[in-house]
UniProtKB/TrEMBL annotation:
Record's protein name: Uncharacterized protein
Length: 469
């Protein structure tokens, strides 16, 4: 008779070496995350909210109270969205430039930049902010000034104080710690003005008096490769640096945050339009990082990762196309009205904690352990899993209950067939599933499970009955 051995579900995802040489970490965690109890929780899915014209990416911004609109830019047009999903086109002048749209707001107007003229929305419809303002990819507001990056240069310019449509060419500064172009700008929650280039990051701060409103406080020779991955969260800033490392930096000190996925990032084929944002959902705090034009592990375009910056653990998000995983469909994100919205091609979806499909498409939750070798030559006579059950929607016997699939990989290449077990109809809350025997392995055991039915899934514990021999 064998002994019951616990499989560590809290092991972090590690993709910095080949899966075949892993021993303890998780090999795959898709559309799920490790919760504080050490189990696996399914990441929520998406439901339709608003359809807009065209099929261009939609970029979102949540305006601050008391205005409180959800703003969307899609196909260069600007829309105001209310909580009932009514969209009003307020485009007077379209947002041009072809880049990702960067938003900020003053006390009474919204400003947008995407590589051409800065666009403002105060009342009525959009218009050009100022003929004297620079063409810009990034614009930000700090202490009564609008600040904008001049495209393809190492310079930035600011408006006259509290006169945001007045720009003087003399109010131009150079970020000259290194002679590289400025590719990004961020105003942090701590009133820091960060200007980034591929070779450097410089921080400017406000001078409380004098004719020059900004001064450079520090500069470091570690640049930002993908400027739209720059995000301020957790009392610091995160970005993909020029050494293909996802790092957290505070002041002049940076520390790696993405070593567990280091090889994944090194193999990225195209960093164009890579972006990041902070997400708070289901009691968790994440950074979502997407590299939309690079090839993923399934050979399709789009790598999307979640980083739990409190537990320092990574996960992968995928959508579904045809019969295989594909790019997670989002391209922007905003939180407003206590809800979470995702910009997609030609519209807006809502990220909903009661939904576990992506607008009717499969959202597969997948977990896979490392090849475990601690049991030596052995039989696995049974596998049991404690899960949340009773998640089916109906007692109707003509409707199949949701299922979980489980299999093992023995010695790296001998896979068992998938075994399917019910996750229970309503009221069927007995929380232990037994999958039966998995055969014999000479050296390593690897377990894999997946759920494609659109139901809430919580995996609490996994054990194997192991008999040596």
């Amino acid at each position: 008779m064998g002994t019951w051995e616990t499989v560590d579900l809290s092991a972090k995802l590690f993709q910095n070496i080949e899966e075949s040489v892993l021993r303890k970490s998780a090999a795959a965690l898709e559309n799920c995350f490790i919760n504080e109890a050490g189990g696996h929780s399914r990441f929520p899915g998406l439901k339709a909210f608003v359809t807009l014209s065209g099929s261009a990416n939609t970029y979102l911004y949540a305006r601050k109270a008391p205005i409180g609109d959800l703003v969307a830019v899609s196909n260069s047009r600007v829309y105001l969205i209310d909580r009932e999903a009514n969209a009003t086109d307020v485009t007077g002048v379209p947002v041009s430039g072809g880049q990702r749209v960067i938003f900020d707001e003053t006390d009474n107007e919204l400003v947008m930049a995407a590589g051409a003229e800065i666009i403002r929305l105060a009342k009525g419809t959009t218009e050009i902010l100022s003929a004297d303002a620079p063409l810009s990819t990034h614009v930000g507001y700090i202490d009564g000034y609008l600040v904008a990056v001049e495209v393809h240069s190492g310079r930035f310019q600011h408006s006259t104080a509290n006169a945001f449509r007045t720009w003087d060419p003399l109010d131009t500064f150079s970020a000259d710690g290194k002679p590289d172009e400025i590719n990004g700008l961020l105003v942090s929650p701590y009133r820091e003005l960060l200007l980034t280039g591929v070779e450097s990051v410089e921080q400017f701060e406000r001078l409380p008096s004098g004719t020059t409103p900004f001064f450079r406080r520090w500069s470091v020779g570690e640049g930002v490769l993908a400027p739209y991955t720059l995000v301020a969260v957790d009392q610091g800033n995160f970005a993909m640096n020029s050494a293909y490392e996802f790092v957290r930096f505070t002041g002049q000190v940076s520390e790696p945050a993405g070593d567990d996925l280091g090889v994944t990032f090194e193999k990225v084929t195209d960093w164009t339009d890579a972006w990041a944002t902070a997400i708070s959902i289901k009691g968790q705090k994440f950074i979502l990082l997407q590299i939309p034009k690079s090839v993923n592990a399934y050979g399709t375009d789009g790598i999307t990762c979640l980083y739990d910056y409190r537990q320092k653990k990574w996960y992968n998000l995928y959508g579904w196309e045809g019969s295989a995983p594909a790019k997670w469909p989002g391209c922007s994100y905003a939180e407003i009205w206590g809800r979470r919205f995702v910009g997609v091609a030609g519209g807006i979806y809502e990220l909903d904690t009661e939904v576990y499909a992506n607008v009717g498409q499969t959202q597969r939750m997948l977990g896979r352990t490392a090849p475990m070798d601690q049991w030596g030559p052995s039989f696995v006579d049974n596998v049991r899993m404690r899960v949340k059950r009773g998640v089916g929607a109906t007692h109707d016997e003509d409707v199949a209950p949701p299922k979980i699939a489980f299999r093992s990989v023995r010695d790296g290449n001998r896979r068992t067939k998938w075994k399917y077990k019910s996750l229970g109809r309503p009221g069927d809350n007995y929380n232990t599933i037994q999958f039966g025997g998995m055969g014999h392995a000479d050296s390593t055991w690897q377990f894999e499970w997946q759920i494609t039915d659109p139901v809430s899934t919580e995996i609490v514990k996994l054990e194997a009955e192991v008999r040596k021999g």
